[in-house]
Amino acid sequence: MTQQNSSQPDNRPKNYIGSALLFVGIFSTATIAGLLILLTTPFPFVIRYNISKAWCTVVLWMSKAFCGLRYEVEGLERINPQQAVIVLSNHQSAWETLALRHILPMQSVLLKRSLLMFPIWGWALGVVKSIAIDRNNQRAALRILLEKGALYLSQGLWIVIFPEGTRTAAGEVRKFSAGGAMLAQKTGVPVMPLAHNAGDFWPRYSFLKYPGVIKVKIGPLIATKGRKAADINADAEAWIAQAIKEMG
């Protein structure tokens, strides 16, 4: 974020109030949504998935209402809900973990297993076909990703992966892990690269959220059949790095 000069109004109190309202709103509604998801586990998956998606939509609305944070998406015409793909996205904040559930078709997300330990909403993550892995055991994590990823793709779900593995600073792109590309190599399912600049307005590990417009860019599908994982990964990483550079 650019520094504020003396001729500009001090928006910090407004930012603190808006961020506090968003914080309270997220955790209160997450509890309600989590309980509803857990209560509907005996019913078809689509019901609890739609509850989770509705909650993400509510969070995006609160982000706009309380913090003046909006978003715009470029490349929506590239989405075909009838074709399952593997999405590889950069990771800068918590925003994209929520927004992509709202923007993209029905999906399974790769996440760290420790998140499932949180009461209610963590438990809810465990029943919406998330792919939970232990990053400290890379061999087992890869096996779970390949097995569950292939299964969910066969069911028509998209697979969303943040191959950097952790949140990065705004404008930064870390080296991608190979798991998502290996899943693509195994299944022949195309990869969709996706880039955003959420970290400019919803910084990692920061309580404060800032008004503005988050840009999301959806890239062209990357063919994977007959290709090596390293080449698939390199193409996705290069496209995302260039897209972030263009965002400034």
* Radius of gyration based on Cα positions: 18 Å
Give the % helix.
40-55%
Report strand order across the widest sheet.
Answer: 1-7-6-2-5-3-4
Low-confidence stretches: 1-6
Give the termini separation.
12 Å
Judging from the principal axes of the Cα atoms, what is the shape?
globular
Amount of beta strand: 5-15%
User: Count of DSSP E strands?
Assistant: 7
Short description:
By secondary structure, the chain is α/β, with parallel strands linked by helices. It has helices spanning 12-39, 45-67, 95-103, 121-125, 138-154, 179-187, 229-247, and strands at residues 69-74, 86-89, 107-112, 131-133, 158-161, 191-196, 212-218. Residues 1-6 have low confidence and may be disordered.
Question: Can you put this structure into words, describing what you see?
Answer:
The protein has helices at 12-39, 45-67, 95-103, 121-125, 138-154, 179-187, 229-247, and strands spanning 69-74, 86-89, 107-112, 131-133, 158-161, 191-196, 212-218. The N and C termini lie close together (12 Å). The model is unreliable at 1-6 (pLDDT under 50). The chain has seven helices and seven strands. With 248 residues, it is α/β, with parallel strands linked by helices. It is globular and about 55 Å long.
